[in-house]
Amino acid sequence: MHDYDISWDYMLDDNVEYKNKKLLNNIIKDIKKTKLSLLKGIKNFSAFCIILPNGILGVYCNGTYKKPIIGLDIGNIISSCEKYNCNIGLAIKTTILHELKHAEQNYLNLKFNENEAEDFAYMNS
Ligand SMILES: [Zn+2]
Asked: pTM here?
């Protein structure tokens, strides 16, 4: 049994600017410290920068709820922030929280619920 590797299903984005990688790492640390206790069964997670279709900001890799793996398209997040005039850090945080709620839904064996994920993300970011 091998651990899931996100590069099996998605192309990693090696061109994310250093400042955005640093921002992402700080947000991951903050979420681990302050938000994971709000999610049943989720004790840790990893997030990777990947390439997604236009307009898709993030994904939760289904089945990885024991240690959720999340993919983020930082380029798409930046484009959506330019379009809607929002803060990149806030958009990254909201996207991760949204996907972590899907990890909890997966852990609880519930159907993926977009409204619940959106509400959780906006209430906690
Ligand atoms: Zn979703």
From this structure: 0.96
